[in-house]
Amino acid sequence: MTPGTVPFALILLDTASEGLKVPLAMLMVFAAAKLLAEIFERIHQPGIVGEILAGVILGPSVLGWLSPNDVLSALADLGVMFLLFRVGLEVKPSELTKLGPTAALVAACGVLVPMVMGWGIVSLWGQPQIEAVFVGAAMVATSVGITAQVLASKGLLQERASQIILAAAVIDDVLGLLVLASVSSVARGQVNVWEIALTAALAIAFVVVVALWGNHAMGKVVPRMQENMKVAEAEYALAIILLFGLAVLAVYVGVAAIVGAFFAGMALAGKVGQRVNDLVHGAAELLVPFFLAGIGLHVNLLAFRSSSMILLAAILLLAAIFSKFAGCGLSAYRLGRTDAIRIGVGMIPRGEVGMVVAQIGLGLGVISENIYGVVVFMAVATTLVAPPLIKIAFLTTESVSPISTGATSTT
Amino acid sequence: MTPGTVPFALILLDTASEGLKVPLAMLMVFAAAKLLAEIFERIHQPGIVGEILAGVILGPSVLGWLSPNDVLSALADLGVMFLLFRVGLEVKPSELTKLGPTAALVAACGVLVPMVMGWGIVSLWGQPQIEAVFVGAAMVATSVGITAQVLASKGLLQERASQIILAAAVIDDVLGLLVLASVSSVARGQVNVWEIALTAALAIAFVVVVALWGNHAMGKVVPRMQENMKVAEAEYALAIILLFGLAVLAVYVGVAAIVGAFFAGMALAGKVGQRVNDLVHGAAELLVPFFLAGIGLHVNLLAFRSSSMILLAAILLLAAIFSKFAGCGLSAYRLGRTDAIRIGVGMIPRGEVGMVVAQIGLGLGVISENIYGVVVFMAVATTLVAPPLIKIAFLTTESVSPISTGATSTT
After folding, report:
1. Which of A154, A180, A240 is the best mutation test for B, with the most CBs of B within 10 A?
2. Nearest Cβ partner of A248 from B24, B240, B247?
3. Continuous H helices in B332-368
4. Residue A408 banded pLDDT, cuts 50, 70, 90
5. Considering only CA atoms, which of B313, B93, B22 is closest in space to residue A71?
6. Contacts for B265 with CB less than 8 Å, ≥ 6 apart
C-alpha cells in the first residue's frame, strides 16, 4: 500500500480495533472455554477442566493470544461472584449452620496441615524462612468456586459432604485472612496482636450475623419490595444489589468478595421466585467461563526454565493435594469414609486465592519470581486435578446419610 | 496511628482496595441506575432516563465518584450488545426485510438532514469548515439502543413503526460508516473513492447476507447442535458465541458491533427455546444499566464555562432533535401521521455513536475540546429527551395499521 492510501485504511483500522477489543476477547475466551468443555464432557471428564485449560492455551504458555488485563480480570471477578451467588441460592442456611462445628474442625485442619507442609518443604529446599511461611500461607485458602461449580453442575449441592465443604470453605476464608494478616505483618517486621484480633472479630461478626439472620431478613424485605417496586424485574435488581452490596461489605471486613456473594445467595434462598434463579443463571453462564479461563491465563509454563524448579513445583503440588485431602478428610472421618473422602477432595482446589497471597508476597519482596511461578502453578494444577477426583468421589460411591436425596440440578 | 502500627493496616487496605474495585463499581452503577429508574417510573417517566442520569450524577459533573475507565466501558459495550441481541430475538426477519425500502428512505433522509444542519450551524458559528463537517457527521448516527430499550420495555417491538425504526437504524449505521470514512479521509487530506466504495460494498454485503440468510441457517444449525452437544446449557452457549462472533465480524467489515449483535438475535429469533430468551434476559438486565449509565458518565457539565458554548450546545441540541424528527418523519409520511411521528421521535437518540465520531475528530485534531464537549452534550441530551417523547408517540396515539397487535412484552 502506498503512503497516499494509508490514511483512510488507517482510520478504519483505528476505529475498528478500538471497537473490536471487547467482542473479540469475549468471543475468544467464551468460545474456547465452551469448545474445550464440550471436548472434555465427551471424553467423560468434567467440562470445568476444559474451561480452565482454555485459559492456559490462550495465555502466554501456549498461544500467547491473551494475557490477564483489567477487563478480563473484572469479568473473572464477576464470574466467581455469580458462581457463588448461584450456589448460595441453592443452600438452606439452617442446614448449613447445623453443620458448623464439623465444618470448623475441617477448616482448621485444612489450614494447619497445608500451612505446615508448605513451610516445611520450602524451608528444607533452602529458601529463607519468611518465603517458606508465605508459600505455606498461599497453600491455605481453598478456592470453593471450582468445587461448587462441579457439585452444582452434577446436582450434588444438597449432599451432606457438599454442605460441609461450603461451610468449611467460608470458615477457611476467615482463617486464611488471619494467616495472611499475621504473615504479612511478620514480613513487615511488625506484629500487632490487637489489630489482628480486631480483624478476626470483625470478620467473624460479619459471617455470623449475615449467615444467621440474612435469610430471615430477606424473607421480610423481598415480599414488601415486590409489592411496591415499579421498575422492571424488580426482584432480580434487588438480588443483584444485595449480591454486590454484601460483596463490598465482605471486602471491607477483610474476607473475600465471594464470601459476601455466597451469603447474598443464601439470604435469598427460598425467598425469591424461580424467575430470579433463571435470570441469575443467565448472567452466571455468561460470566463463569471468564473466571475459569482466567485462572488458566495466569499460568506461564515458560517460567519453568530450571529442572530444580520443576521438581519443587511437583513436590509442592503433591503436598498441596495431600495436605488438604488428609487434613480435611481425617478431621471429618467420624462421618464415615465416603463423606471423609468427598470432603477431602472437595477442599483441594486453591485457584485464585493462592495466587492472590503469592502476589502479595511478591509485592512485599519476600517471594522471588521463581517461587511465585511455582505457587501459581500449584494453585492452577490443584484446580485441574480436583474436578475429576470430586466426580469420582461423589458419583461412584454412595453416601451413607445424605441430608436430602432430592438433589436439584442447576444445569 | 503510630508508624509502628501502619504496616498491618496498610496490607489489609492494599488487599481490600484491590478486591474492592470491581464489586464497588458494580454496586454504585447498578444501584444508582435502578434507584433512579424506580423514581422515574413512579413519576410516570421512562426508567431509562433515570438510568442515564445516574451516570451523569456519579460522573464528573456532579459527584465525581466515577469516571469512564476500561472496565466500565467494556461493561457498557457488553450492555448495548446484549440489549440489541435481546431486541433481535424478538424481531421476525421476514417482516423487517419487507419494510426495507421505506426504512432505507427514512435512514437516508435521517442522515442527510442532520448532517447538513450540523455543518451549517457550526459553519455559521464561524468554526473551520472541516470542524463543521465533523460535527455534522457526529449528528448522523442514531443510537438505536435507547429507542429499542424503551420499545422493548413497553412491549412495542412488533409495531410497524418500531420495525421501521430498527431497520432504518441498521441502514443508518452503514450510511454513518460511509460518512465517517469520507469525512475522515477529507480531514487527512486524502480521498480514495475506491476504498470508500470497497468499504461500502463489504458493509452492505454483510448486512444483506446475514439479514436474509442468518435465520434460515440457524434454523438448520440449532436443532443439530442441540442434539449433539453435551455441555450444559448448550443452546445458550451457542447463542452467546453467535452474538460475539457476528459482533466481531460486523466490526471487521466496518459497521458497529451492535449491528452484529442485533443480527445474531434476529438469526436466532424463533429458532431457540424460551429458556435461551430467559437466560439472555438475565445477562441483559445485569449489563444494560452499565450502557445507560455509561452514556451519562461521559457528560462533563463543568466543560461549559462560556455562555457562548452553552448557546451553541442548546442550538445544536434543538437542531439534532428537529433534523431527525423532520428528516425521518417526513420521509415516512406516506404511512400516515401517527407512524411518521413515531418514527421521527424514535430516531432522535444519538448516544454513544455520536460520541465516537467526535472522539475520532478530536484524535485527528480537527475538533477542538470545546466543540467536543458540545457534541457529547448533544449526544447525551438527545437520549434523555427521546424516551418520554417515544412513550407519548407510541402510547397515546393509536397506530392505523400495526403489523401485529399481539405485542410480546419483555418485562
Report:
1. A240
2. B24
3. 337-346, 351-364
4. very low
5. B22
6. B84, B85, B86, B87, B88, B89, B90, B91, B243
Chain centre distance of CA A21: 27
pLDDT the model gives residue A1: 33
For residue B18, pLDDT beyond 70 = no
Domain A23-395: give its CATH architecture: Up-down Bundle (1.20)
Q: From its phi and psi, is residue B155 left (phi > 0), alpha (psi between -120 and 50) or beta?
A: left
Average pLDDT over residues A198-216: 83
pLDDT band at A38 (very low <50, low <70, confident <90, very high): very high
For the cut 70, the answer to whether the pLDDT of residue B8 exceeds it is no
Which element (helix H / strand E) includes A356? helix A351-364
pLDDT at site A9: 37
Judged by CB atoms closer than 8 Å, whether chains meet at B230 and A42 is answered as yes
In our burial notation (b when 16+ CB lie closer than 10 A, e otherwise), range A50-81 reads bbbbbbbbbbbbeeeebeeeebbbbbbbbbbb
Contact B269, B89 (CB under 8 A): yes
What ipTM goes with this model?
0.81
Residue B153 corresponds to which cell in the numbers above?
A: 420495555
Give the 3-state secondary structure of residue A143: coil
Nearest CA in chain B to A72: B71
- Return the amino acid letter for A222: V
Measure B102 CA to nearest chain A CA, in Å.
29
The lowest-confidence range among A195-209, A333-347, B337-351 is A195-209
Rounded to 5°, the CA angle B125-B131-B136 comes to 85
Domain boundaries, chain A: 23-395
Q: What is the mean pLDDT of residues B11-34?
A: 76
Nearest Cα residue to B180 out of B359, B382, B374: B359
Question: For B195, which of A8, A74, A236 is closest by C-beta distance?
Answer: A8
What is the nearest CA distance from B63 to chain A, expressed in angstroms? 20
Residues of chain B found within 8 Å of residue A282, distances taken between Cβ atoms: 236, 278-283
CATH topology of domain B24-395: Na+/H+ antiporter like fold (1.20.1530)
Of residues A175 and B123, more confidence is placed in: B123
Contact B248 A30 (CB under 8 A): no
A134-162: average pLDDT: 86
- The DSSP code for A396 is S
Secondary structure of residue A146 in the 3-state scheme: helix
Residue A277 C-alpha, separation from nearest chain B C-alpha, in angstroms: 9
Taking the C-alpha atoms of residue B382 and residue B320, their distance in angstroms, rounded to an integer, is: 7
Most confident of A172-186, B87-101, B273-287, B363-377: B273-287
B126: region left, alpha or beta (phi > 0 left; psi from -120 to 50 alpha): left
